[in-house]
UniProtKB/TrEMBL annotation:
Keywords: ATP-binding, Nucleotide-binding, Transport. GO terms for molecular function: ABC-type transporter activity; ATP binding; ATP hydrolysis activity. This is Putative spermidine/putrescine transport system ATP-binding protein/spermidine/putrescine transport system ATP-binding protein. Residues 4-234 form the ABC transporter domain.
Length: 359
């Protein structure tokens, strides 16, 4: 069991700042997901925590103790690397047993622990295979087993499920969650899948360009992204430019192109008529509607993509921006059809203009 604190953690490569003043306190037993696009600094942060990068600014504290001069092998962290890095000359059993042998546990205990963990990651029977004799997903699970088997106080997982097929991925997510709950390991998991982050973690940290954009409970980050960047990352793929027309208590009407949408901004946010804003809404929250219903607008179907559980429609002639809607109905839509859709007022988020979308 361990708590982890990052204070002003910064990593520069020449003039380039890969990790930029990260402050983060992870409670004992908490699972935190680092979520962000490629190159935003996730792996670099894990490498500094694990002790694989020792030139950095700021501090890494474990249970309040500065790790600066503690070599990686003494940190007792379970690490799953993005590229797995299995020992190529060792078979599955030996790869997984490595950390336990280092701890000089009794042979019978090592065998029992390896047996249990291989069963967990569904690799029973693969004990004697070498990494080159395993598929990518199997190698990934060996690496996961190796990180978990020593039941480390701090577990660092860098995209542990990225190579698995959808079904196995969900199964392993459930396993990771169960192991986390049972053993109470303080865990940092890196992913660039927002659904994985919100379903696994107690807290989600959304990063961009080496910085934290938002840190919060999964529901907070998923439902109320702090800015347009986080919104975009969390699946709000409709961004509609508008201008505040009226504010009446919490009720705000916004002119978007030559249409109008109303929504409730409970906190008022100091809006006034004339303010430039951006409205955001998820494609799945845009619903087919009757003309005349609240926030119901008519446009033209521009494109139809069947996605299995939903049909994704691109709808033009509503605003200047194309609207993306995921519709559940089995009814077939065709390009050129007129369609009326509602933008439910409680599902619309409003951002003031100065919060620009960054890349
Ligand atoms: N040794 C290095 N020298 C120079 N730049 C580096 C070095 N290592 C990483 N970087 C840069 O630092 C940035 C952060 O890299 P990092 O590997 O932490 O990204 P990441 O968030 O893990 O991305 P991904 O999701 O693709 O794994 C990237 O722009 C990368 O090119
Ligand atoms: Mg990475």
């Amino acid at each position: 069991m361990a708590s982890l604190e990052l204070q002003g953690l910064t990593k520069k490569y020449g003039d380039f700042t890969a990790v930029d003043h990260i402050d983060l306190a992870v409670r004992d037993g908490e699972m935190v997901a680092l979520l962000g696009g490629s190159g935003c600094g996730k792996t670099t942060i894990l490498n500094m925590i694990a002790g694989f990068i020792d030139q950095y600014e700021g501090s890494v504290l474990v249970d309040g103790k500065d790790m600066k001069h503690i070599p990686a092998y003494k940190r007792k962290m379970g690490v799953f690397f993005q590229n797995y890095a299995l020992f190529p000359h060792m078979n599955t059993f030996d790869n997984v047993a490595f950390g336990l042998k280092m701890q000089k546990l009794a042979k019978s205990l090592i065998q029992e622990k390896v047996r249990r963990i291989l069963q967990l990651v569904k690799l029973t029977g693969m004990e004697k295979r070498f990494p080159r004799e395993l598929s990518g997903g199997q190698q990934q699970r060996v690496a996961l087993a190796r990180a978990l088997v020593t039941e480390p106080a701090l577990l660092l997982l860098d995209e542990p499920l990225s190579n698995l097929d959808a079904k196995l991925r969900v199964e392993m997510q459930i396993e990771i969650k169960r192991i986390h709950r049972e053993l109470g390991l303080t865990t940092i998991i890196v992913t660039h899948d927002q659904e994985e982050a919100v379903s696994l973690a107690d807290r989600v940290i959304v990063m961009n360009a080496g910085r934290i954009m938002q840190a919060g409970k999964p529901k907070e980050v998923f439902d109320r992204p702090a800015n347009l960047f986080v919104g975009d990352f969390m699946g709000f793929s409709n961004f509609i430019a508008g201008q505040v027309r009226r504010v009446a208590g919490a009720r705000v009407s916004v002119a978007c192109s030559d249409r109008e949408l109303v929504l409730d901004e409970a906190d008022g946010t100091g809006l006034a008529a004339g303010d430039s804003v951006t409205l955001a809404i998820r494609p799945e929250n845009i619903l087919p509607a009757e003309k005349g219903a609240e926030n119901a607008l008519t446009g033209t179907v521009r494109n139809v993509t069947y996605k299995g559980t939903v049909t994704r429609l691109e709808i033009g002639d509503v605003f200047a921006e194309t609207v993306f809607a995921n519709i559940h109905e089995s009814e077939d839509y065709e390009i050129g059809d007129a369609i009326t859709v509602a933008f439910p007022s409680q599902k619309l988020l409003l951002y003031k203009k100065e919060e620009k979308r960054s890349e």
